[in-house]
Amino acid sequence: MVNEIKPFGFWTKMNDDDLKEFARRNHNGKSSSEIQREDGGLYTILHKRGLIVKLVEEGIIIRKRNLEHLSRIRNMDEREFISYMENKYREKSLSEIQREDRIAYHRIEELGLQDKFVELGIIKRKGKKRGFFTDMDNNQLIEYTSQNYKGIAIKQMQRANGRLYSILSKRDLIHELVKRGIIITRKRKYGSLINMNNEELINYIESNYSGKRISDFNNKNNRAYELACEKGLIDLLVERKILIREVKRSGFFRNMSDEELIAYTEKNHKGKLMRQAEEDESSVIVIARVRGLMDKIVERGILIREMKKPGFFTNIGDDELVNYIRENHSGKKISNFGKDDAAAYQAVLKRGLVDFLVQESVLIRTRVKNGQWKDEEYMLGRASVIAEKYGIEVFSPNRLSSLKYADLLKAINLYYGGFPAFRDWLREKLQLKAEVSELEDLIGEYISGEGNE
Fold first, then answer.
1. What ranges in 352-375 are assigned the alpha helix state H?
2. In degrees to the nearest 10, what's the CA dihedral of 164, 168, 171, 175?
């Protein structure tokens, strides 16, 4: 499923654990830039939820600086690897090696050398002997779990003893352990969510997610969110100011004067980094940027423009530079980008990345009057590329905003009559294109057949 086009909402419906598991199964040992190239939709949602760092810490994603070490370890034969481990990690336990050098740890597992290393005295065994749990029958596993982990939550047991948890899962014993009351699904202050009445569920959400946006609440606890939707509680949670509804009516920011827009930014985002404010509420920042208000907002101390150490951009690769600009300057005109971040702009010029950033719709190159987006062929081409890259079936403002395509979002509203009209236009154009292609194929077959007679 890695390279297949995913249905709309495929990634957003996953919780953080599911996303991490998908990355582990399909991209283990890759760098973040490799994942971005191969699976852009997954990379975007991992970055948005702040999971890249966690995946690096768990050794699933490899930072570029570790690639040389990874290559060196992988190129060793078994004898060389044993000698390397004996010199560097003698007398250490597997868990200590896992913390200090995940690449070496994964190589040990890959080659199945755990027992051999223990026998040779290279590493110490602190845990159970290999096969300790697999040799048990189901009743013995249940008894062992009852004696050592009774009353613990599933997630806590998984962290405490991953090998035991894995065996229990493979043998479908988790449900039986929960049923017998040996382990519990989750310790909750208000008991099981499904058994809560409306007020208990509201109290639970207020205690754990007060002040969160609805989308953030959904990402953090999809089960509680779905129950709140089923019971029709979302509007009530917003009215009580427990949750925040982020959707503004059409034209909400465009109809503000400059001073009203600045006042709104001060009230809702004062003291934030520009990047953070844009992540929290991209619409207001996009409008402020289009009107040239960002310098004024920074000068008044409302937002903070993040400063980089000298040499920051010379020490990062092209992929990291592109990601930095996508995160901090997406949707800007090239001239505005140059004013807002001169050091990054100079780095882009030196590396010849301007055209690439324009093609990727990260930066906007101002061309003829009314802009390139009015050209229907250009719009059709860019929309098709973006839809294919991120598996988009239905274009929406929230989707484009989350992917940092502010210029496309703006063009749809300015030149194509808003999103409903644009979707109809796009459907019609793609259908016509398919019909023309089919007609051309038929004509080609006819001409080819005629020539063979």
1. 354-359
2. 180
Instruction: Give the helix ranges, DSSP H, for 39-186.
Output: 40-48, 52-57, 67-74, 78-89, 94-100, 102-111, 114-119, 138-149, 154-160, 162-170, 174-179
Q: Using an 8 Å Cβ cutoff, are 332 and 325 in contact? A: no
Helix (H) or strand (E) holding 332: strand 332-333
Q: Within 13 A of 441's CA, how many CA atoms are on the CB side?
A: 6
CA–CA separation, 163 and 275 (whole Å): 41
Query: Tokens at residue 143, please?
Result: 């008894």
- Residue 163 has phi, psi (to 5 degrees) of -65, -45
Of residues 199 and 447, more confidently modeled = 199
Nearest CA-CA partner of 324 in 310, 306, 336, 339: 306
Cα separation, 239 vs 106, in Å, equals 51
Q: pLDDT category, 256, cuts 50, 70, 90?
A: confident
Q: How many CA atoms lie within 13 A of 402 on its CB side?
A: 22
- pTM for this model (two decimals): 0.24
Model confidence at 233: pLDDT above 80: yes
DSSP secondary structure letter of residue 128:
P
What integer is the mean pLDDT of 187-212?
A: 74
pLDDT tens digit string along 259-277?
888 988 888 788 777 777 8
Query: Residue 319 has what pLDDT?
Result: 83
pLDDT surpassing 80 at residue 365: no
Q: 281 is written with which tokens? A: 């509420």
User: Domain ranges in the chain?
Assistant: 16-62, 68-124, 138-184, 193-244, 258-304, 315-420
DSSP label at 30? B
* Coil, helix or strand at residue 305: coil
DSSP 5: P
Which residues, 6+ apart, have CB-to-CB distance to 346 below 8 Å? Answer: 313
Angle formed at CA 16 by CA 11 and CA 21, multiple of 5 degrees: 85
Beta strands in 155-267 (DSSP E): 183-184, 212-213, 243-244
Pairing of strands 152-153, 183-184: parallel
Q: Is residue 452 predicted with pLDDT exceeding 50?
A: no
Cα separation of 399 and 392, whole Å? 9
Residue 323, CA distances (Å) to 236, 326, 404, 448 in order: 39, 5, 11, 49
Residues 276-308: tens digit of each pLDDT? 787 777 778 888 888 888 888 888 888 877 666
Higher pLDDT, 274 or 128: 274
Q: Which residue has the tokens 């802009």?
A: 371
Nearest C-alpha neighbor of 384 from the set 5, 23, 47, 17:
5
**In the structure encoding, which two tokens stand for residue 302, read together?**
């409302």
DSSP state of 185: S
Tokens coding 34: 């490799």
